[in-house]
Amino acid sequence: MEERADNGNKELFSEEEEDRRSVKEECEEEMKEAALCAVSIRTFTPSKQQIVPKTPEAVDDFLRNFLRRAGLIRTLNVFEHEWYGSAQKLLSETVRTAWTGVFIPDALTHRQLLQRELEMACMETDRLRHDVLVAGESLVRTQRERDFHRLQHRRVAEEKNRLIKDFKQLKKHVESYKPVLRQLEDKYQEALRQKTLITLEKDRVQNASDAKLNEEKFPNLKESTIKRSDGGNKPPTKSAVARNPKDTEFPVRSRLVNPPRTHGTFEKWKSTISFRLSYSFRAHKLPISCIDLHPQKGMLATASDDRSWRLWELLPNGEKVGQMVLTGEGHSDWLSGCSFHPDGAKLATTSGDCTVRLWDLSRGRCVLSLLGHGQPTWGCSFHWSGHFLASCSADRTAKVWDMNSQRCRLTLRRHSASVNSVCFLPLSHLLLTASADKTLAKWDARQGVCIASFHGHQQPCKHAAFSPAGNAMLASCDARGIVHLWDVRKPALPTATVDAGPLPANQVAFSPSGKTLAVAGSDGAVRVVQVDNGLTTSLLGPGDGVQSVTFDHEGETVTSAGKDGVISVWAGK
């Protein structure tokens, strides 16, 4: 019996050992699975927001509850003993080998994290709701503005279409009036031309009547002049020609057709006047070689390379375009110069065709052609009486023509190169010539005698002019741009020199008061020189080289013309 009891106890003990071993193995497997599950949860790739892993129930609590429900008290005691011993050590090692630093939060921590995320989500939701409301209001406002601007655009489009329609109707209306306007413009130009020509004819008749009155008033003047001329002791020069019954004698004293203005006229004008460009207009398509101002009226004559001359009326202040009054064609080559008759009724022109032509402005045609030069003529100038005309040419001579007998009275030969300019001294019989031989010559036009020579230029002389103020001054310019001022009584040395170079200076012109000198430069500038102190001001215009320049009757404006065919008017201020 005792053996059976012992055997039974052994069997019971062995069964308990087996149960304990199996439970232990199950516990180890469950702990490994729990540890691996925790590790797999922690190693899952998280999103940008914090992910809270799902934490299973504690393993030891599960086993305790399970053994207690099963009534395995001794097994529970053995489990607790081994759990806090080798089993706890095995769990820690398994977890450490699976993932270092693993942390399994409990339910409270999990709840706090979820609560924090919930609060943040609520805040984000509120912010988004506010943004949605603001965006909704902005959308409604934008839609209202869109509707308003759409209406405005429709109104503007309708107004535009209406204006386009009206504009087309007005354009058709204007087109219908264009032929009438063109006819009226032609009639106006013709009337203006007739008015100018009638005025010129009136001046010519008035001057002729004045001359007849002078002859009736002084009947012995001509006889005394002839006796003085015949009784002279000076022999005639080689250049003089035989007398003609129609030849006119140089006057001893006579009434000037267009007397120069007195100095009292210029009291309001100061020598320090400055100029600004008032207006400009195109007068010719080709270069303008010379301009000359009408002796009495505000009209300007232009000579151009297009073989024509034109007469322009300079408009008063405020109007910006000149009006062409008359034009003349007849030369077979380019024009080089022009000069008004003192009575303003005639115009003389010189040309590359070697001729000098005289034009009657009242009839608008050429009335006289003077032949005698062998090469192109460069310029011309009337005697103050209007009975004589001087011309210069590239044939190295200057000629004095009698307007009454219509023939050459004198041929002046002294220069060794082309004579580029010729000019009569006002109220005298002195004649000035400038030549490419770098000299100036002063002549007595009655006898054809050179009475003085001016040496000082180092380059060919381009032009020379007397001062109209009667102060015995003259100016000259050369191809280097050097301008000399001379005293007529002292030809040895110039009294002053102005450098307007290095390009050529083409022409010089004194103001009516003689206090200011204008220089036309090939560099496109007009230089205004104060004669007293040599102060120089440059006027830059829109064109290229300036070929000719002149002052108005009051000395308050400067008019220039050049290679671009444009006339520029500079007003004093």
Can you walk through the features of this model?
- With 573 residues, the protein is an alpha+beta fold.
- Helices cover 35% and strands 30% of the residues.
- It is built from 5 helices and 28 strands.
- β8 (355-360) and β9 form a beta hairpin.
- The longest helix is centred in the N-terminal third of the chain and has 111 residues, at 107-217.
- The radius of gyration is 58 Å and the shape is elongated.
Classification by helices and strands: alpha+beta
Shape label: elongated
Main beta-sheet annotation? 4 strands, antiparallel
Backbone CA Rg: 58 Å
Residue share in β-strands:
25-35%
Mean pLDDT, to the nearest integer, reads: 80
How helical, in percent, are the residues?
A: 25-40%
Residue stretches low in confidence (pLDDT < 50, at least 5 long) are 38-50, 95-104, 221-241, 253-272
Q: Care to count the β-strands?
A: 28
What is the spatial order of strands in the main beta sheet? 1-28-27-26
Number of helices: 5
Cα separation of the termini: 157 Å
